[in-house]
UniProtKB/TrEMBL annotation, chains A, B:
GO terms for biological process: histidyl-tRNA aminoacylation. Its main location: cytoplasm. It is found in: Cytoplasm. The lineage of its organism: Bacteria, Pseudomonadati, Planctomycetota, Planctomycetia, Pirellulales. Keywords: Aminoacyl-tRNA synthetase, ATP-binding, Cytoplasm, Ligase, Nucleotide-binding, Protein biosynthesis. NCBIfam families: hisS (TIGR00442). InterPro entries: aa-tRNA-synth_II (IPR006195), aa-tRNA-synth_II/BPL/LPL (IPR045864), Anticodon-bd (IPR004154), Anticodon-bd_dom_sf (IPR036621), His-tRNA-ligase (IPR015807), HisRS-like_core (IPR041715), HisRS/HisZ (IPR004516). The gene is hisS. Coiled coil: none annotated. This is Histidine--tRNA ligase.
Length: 448, 448
């Protein structure tokens, strides 16, 4: 029989242990943070009726959906994000769930786009949303969640840029540009990439805006400095109408509330230039960049919307949410050398040295596990050099070695693999404490 | 615009928080156990080349695959189990990974079968395997992993039935039934369901076996009692040939090794009747039943195979693995009332009572979180009765209530929701200890 070539589809990938271990840890950290704020997990089917998925999408998204006819002749598709399923889910269950409804959802999505470096057709999304409240408390909490996510993952230096889209809307209304707002904001979103002049030119060209109007919009967008000075400048620039003042006050509230919630002042930036492309954001919006790696773009973005599920229900569902870019974060952590390089989740390898003592190795392994020390027992009594090579190449930190002599003397050799130091430590199945303390001490030391 | 009806496809389901919370906990527990033995996580694509998926499957599996042509004209399918992807993965990467290769994989799979009560077209699989070793150490460890999985999840009373398929094979060879072995074992697998007489009749009819031969097979299968007495009876029944004795010794080793690894004796049953349908098992096999709910069948099954990836590589990859039935376990835990009934992962609700003190609530919430106490802050200053109703219906255990008086006096009201008892506890942002100790004390109490 001829062999079938083992391969993955273009744009898809296998996750080997060395990559999957930190990826899984990242998801675990995110779950822990979400839960600590009372966000609850949900899951939805991979496959949905195609009409659900294409309801709101742009032509581009629609083209990217993996779609087919199932055995029952139904037109179905694989979800391409977690927002459309959330909208469908909320429309279907919100009366049972009640509001506020706070959920997180960590799950893969699929897009049949042309694969590029670092972009895949299957990738993980990690979203959290608070649905059913317009209160600024939920806006503040979203900023606090982002702060705790990034710091729990291990980042110190990052910036959460916050804006209120309503401030931009009020400025545009003041400038009589309400009708062109989508086009203007789309131009404005490019400010970071193409610079002031090109944005001004594009606004005039594409969005039918005068040079003076473009200048006003850019003046607002370029406000920089301490939050307080920005807050002070905003009323004059936006015209200072009642609704503009409400929008500015909301932004102030988000800032002061975030401080009260423990977000360090230096991590929050009021950036009235960010607009975020999606049309459905209506209020507070945010982006998060890593100070040491700003080039990779925002690692956590989101904002407030007025109506999540208008396609599926007449019930108005306002909310706020954001999405953590897991894959982007992982790539960043790799660049910044924040990832341990290990292909094993267990730090201790027990060498299997002497087949006559098989049961002793098994009991030792169980005793360590009972003490909370993850360990792997090598399954074959191969040469010690083979087992130590395995330990090195997999990133184990400690090898335990015991043969007939050690078992007789009631000791185990503890070999720290980074330093190649060995120590003989007392051990018996009845009294494992000396060994477990020794291991805990070694494992607590920082990896170099 | 007319609304799109929000609904899920037949055979698929949404997981609402009350179900998703324990489901996620279950997966977390499983991951923790796998890691403690050095099993590493992997992930593989949802979509594979169809030829990979249909390579080995039976006609029935093939029919159930969700398949389609992707935009590039490739015939693709959604994985229907995690074993075929593992085989493809191992064939592709084993030279890089080295052996032994120990992996776990928790991921959804899809089968377009007719939906039945409790069966879905999308469900989660949870597999662990040790590849690249024939040593009995890996067999023993698999039993130990199953024991630790079930006990970590919270079960006390369960039975791991262990057999060595080679014992059956040797008996069949001794009886001159080697050629009919698949048919005979398929009949034997029904012993628990249809009883001795019907199995004997079916063996004679379907498998071309004499009544005397069927009686011999059933005599072996019906061996019951203490492991030692079974081990004693086996040589005579199987004919006592060299290979039979080797097979029996292996079974003895698994038993004694599992005891050394800390598996309580009462949880292991040597059951020489289990054969497990799949043809590719060749050695030790196991099934796990819950003593309080045996009717739901095995919740963790698996066994040893000689060659995992023969379709994709000439490299022989022996191994052993098993699959934890997450959905079945969840259903069992619900039947046995082992699941807390909560729609929130946070036990504490902070009522938002007095909008003038917004920042105080935010800081309180952060202080509790810093102390490891997950809490949700109600986002709207609605009537207290509304907030307490929310707390009750979502399964919060404690509500914290503070208005202007409390904030002035430096106290918070702690309301235990099950007993409706309230206590006034000292609290300030600088000294949260009294409150956090009080909450930890309440939360440590067993739920009634």
């Amino acid at each position: 029989m001829s062999l079938i070539k083992p391969r993955t589809l273009n744009g898809f990938r296998d996750y080997l242990p060395a990559v999957m271990i930190p990826r899984e840890r990242l998801m675990e950290t995110a779950r822990g943070v979400f839960r600590s704020y009372g966000f609850a997990p949900i899951d939805t089917p991979t496959l949905e009726y195609l009409e659900i998925l294409t309801g709101k999408g742009s032509d581009e998204t629609d083209r990217q959906i993996y779609r087919f006819e199932d055995n029952g002749g139904r037109a179905v598709g694989m979800r391409f994000d977690l927002t459309v399923p959330l909208a469908r889910f909320a429309a279907q269950h919100i009366n049972q769930l009640g509001t506020p409804f706070k959920r997180y959802h960590i799950a893969p999505v699929w897009r049949g786009e042309r694969p590029q470096a670092g972009r895949y057709r299957e990738f993980m999304q990690c979203d959290f949303d608070t649905i059913g409240t317009r209160n600024v408390m939920a806006d503040i909490e979203s900023v606090a969640v982002i702060n705790r996510l990034l710091s729990s993952i291990g980042f110190d230096a990052f910036t959460i840029s916050v804006n209120n889209r309503a401030v931009l809307t009020e400025l545009l209304r003041h400038l009589d540009l309400a009708d062109q707002s989508v086009a203007v904001l789309r131009c404005l979103d490019k400010l970071g990439k193409i610079g002031r002049e090109k944005v001004a030119a594009e606004m005039c060209e594409v969005a039918d805006v005068s040079a003076a109007q473009a200048d006003k919009v850019l003046q607002l967008a370029e406000l920089d400095g301490e939050p307080e000075s920005i807050f002070e400048a905003l009323p004059a620039i936006t015209g200072g109408g009642d609704e503009a003042l409400v929008a500015i006050d909301r932004l102030k509230d988000v800032f002061s509330g975030a401080l009260a919630a423990g977000v360090p002042r230096g991590r929050i930036k009021i950036d009235v230039s960010i607009a975020r492309g999606l049309d459905y954001y209506t209020g507070v919006i945010f982006e998060t960049t890593l100070d040491d790696l700003p080039s990779i773009g925002s690692v956590c973005s989101g904002g407030r919307y007025d109506n999540l599920a208008g396609l599926y229900t007449k019930q108005e569902l306002p909310g706020i949410g954001a999405s953590l870019g897991l894959d982007r974060l992982l790539a960043a952590m790799e660049s910044l050398r924040m990832l341990p390089n290990a292909a094993t989740p267990a730090p201790v390898l027990i060498a299997y040295f002497d087949a006559d003592h098989r049961d002793n190795y098994l009991t030792l392994s169980a005793r360590l596990r009972d003490a909370g020390i993850a360990n792997e027992l090598f399954p074959d009594p191969k040469r010690l050099s083979v087992q130590l090579k395995y330990a090195d190449s997999h990133g184990f930190r400690v090898a335990l070695i015991a043969g007939g002599n050690e078992w007789g003397a009631g000791t185990v050799q503890v070999k720290t693999l980074a330093t190649k130091e060995s120590a003989e430590v007392a051990y018996s199945h009845d009294r494992p404490e000396e060994l477990t303390s020794c291991l805990n001490r070694i494992l607590a030391e920082e990896l170099q």
